[in-house]
Amino acid sequence: MTLSQRLREYIAACFTGLWVESHEHEDALTEISQLCRQENWRLATWSIDQGLKIAGQTAGVDSGTNDPLAAIRSLNALAGADSSALLVLVNFHRFLNSAEVVQTLATQITAGKQNRTFVVILSPVVQIPTELEKAFAVIEHELPDRDQIEQIAHGVATEPGEIPDGDGLVAVLDAAAGLTRMEAENAFSLSLVRHQQLVPEAIWELKSGMLKKSGTLQLHRGNERFSELGGLEALKSFCLRAMRRRATQNSAVRPRGVLLLSPPGCGKSAFCKSLGNETGRPVLTLDVGSLLGSLVGQSEQNIRHALRIADAMAPCVLFCDEIEKALSGVASSGQTDSGVSARLFGRLLTWLNDHESDVFFVGTCNDISKLPPEFSRAERFDGIFFVDLPDVAQRRAI
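User: That's the sequence. What structure does it adopt?
Assistant: Structure tokens below.
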């Protein structure tokens, strides 16, 4: 469901406080503007650098002010008897440390029920003060799907021969999956400058650098193959059969993933990296330790963002190495880190159970006794494999 569709529903239900989580403010504002024109709603936007901007310049409103309090209070002047009015506050989470701003927002949201005025905060993070938690509904601005990415590609590559056909186009769209709209546009432009056409290699290179900026995911694009990895024949055939069955038969049963248990040095990490090449999927490495942040709520925000990227990049392989080292302190989390580890663990378990995207999760563990027992429950993985130390024949193959 698109952002405009969600907004239409919430506004029809008279949710007067809306928080839109988005890293693409220009695209979000474009969707909101189109929705307001379609529904004949009044629209005003405010940011600290541009002040208050009102579509149509309604009389009686102080346009151009950079005072956040004045911008909120101006919304009542936009109210009409036969139409709704929206005020979009861009990056307004920076101003919610002020008691005056919080109280003014609370008053305006309550008054909006009577005159159908709506406050929309557009921000890359969700940081709602305690006083306003019950007043706001949170909406996520989703990353572009493959149809939207293809539209962006046709908008950038306009000359004949610049966009490949068939499997070549599918490879380009797979490479761009998980990028924002601006990042996809930049990746396509870089590919045209280098190769005079859209090729996945240039997009993968740029995408790898963009993922490193987040610090939570890394993209592995190596040349490892199963033929270079001795042993593990049962594990290889099991994963290939599970992943290819859905691709060839369009099976409704999605492969969930596997949990690999063994001492260090048995080839668990090498197997996961080669699995991506064997199945034609990118391998995303999730570092659970890097999810921890210094600010309240930052760790939970990091894992939500990382899993959203993994879902958007599907089909892919999500690799989490030595996962017991990150989850071993869950039982005592309430006494040691205010419950942050427990909340991260709960979010990961929920995603493993409920995600519908074609993401194959591979977790490795050296000491199963340190894992919480609920992590290895049968429904979370297709199989749990105990990887033995390589014998002499396997060492020769390696």
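The radius of gyration is 25 Å.
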